[in-house]
């Protein structure tokens, strides 16, 4: 059984993995560099004094959700989650599943974003595999001195690296 502190840290790690990676369109470049720019944008939103005010949680979530839609490849994530069952789905079923799945992920992660309290992110390394696939290794450094490794899997679409896992 995990301690409440560990559950909060893991919840925060999930939020970071799912949403703190989000940002607007980035130019082609190393996946780690794009990720760093994206994380900085989200952290700026989370640290915005105006959005931290009482009653601004909904506005903050809307901004984070919008940014998430710009970088997170919900379609690819949904497809991979179904695995071999994806091929048997009709286009209408696929579209509905992607929408429902992305709503679930957004609701799950956005609620965790509220737990952000100034934790630091250390960028460890990135590697490009097969030309359009990449892994970015980071470490979430908790205020309690803990380290939570997070690996982001991304793929390149056009000039952008999108998170799918």
Detailed description of the structure:
The structure is a single chain. The protein has 165 residues and is α+β, with helices and mostly antiparallel strands. It has a domain at 4-116. It contains 6 helices and 4 strands; from the N terminus they run ααααααββββ. A 4-stranded antiparallel β-sheet has the order 1-2-3-4. A hairpin with a 2-residue loop joins β3 (147-157) and β4 (160-163). The radius of gyration is 16 Å and the shape is globular.
Distance between the termini: 26 Å
Secondary structure class reads: alpha+beta
**Percent of residues in beta strands:** 15-25%
State the order of secondary-structure elements, H for helix, E for strand.
HHHHHHEEEE
Number of helices: 6
Short description:
With 165 residues, this protein is α+β, with helices and mostly antiparallel strands.
Helices and strands in order:
Layout: H1 4-18, H2 31-47, H3 49-52, H4 57-71, H5 74-82, H6 91-113, E1 120-129, E2 133-141, E3 147-157, E4 160-163
Antiparallel strand pairs: 1-2, 2-3, 3-4
Helix pairs in contact: 1-6, 2-4, 4-6, 5-6
Index terms:
single chain, 165 residues, alpha+beta, four-stranded antiparallel sheet, 6 helices, globular, disordered N terminus
């Amino acid at each position: 059984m995990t301690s409440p502190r560990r559950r909060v840290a893991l919840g925060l790690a999930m939020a970071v993995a799912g949403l703190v990676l989000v940002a607007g369109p980035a130019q082609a470049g190393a996946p780690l560099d794009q990720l760093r720019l994206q994380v900085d944008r989200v952290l700026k939103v989370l640290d915005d004094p105006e959005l931290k005010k009482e009653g601004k949680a909904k506005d903050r979530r809307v901004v984070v959700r919008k940014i998430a839609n710009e970088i997170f490849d919900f379609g690819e994530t949904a497809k991979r989650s179904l695995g071999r069952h994806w091929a048997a789905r009709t286009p209408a079923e696929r579209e509905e599943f992607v929408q429902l799945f992305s709503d679930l992920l957004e609701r799950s992660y956005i609620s965790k974003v509220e737990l952000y309290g100034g934790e630091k992110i250390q960028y460890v390394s990135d590697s490009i595999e097969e030309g359009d696939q990449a892994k970015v290794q980071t470490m979430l450094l908790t205020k309690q001195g803990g380290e939570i490794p997070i690996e982001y899997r991304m793929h390149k679409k056009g000039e952008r690296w999108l998170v799918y896992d």
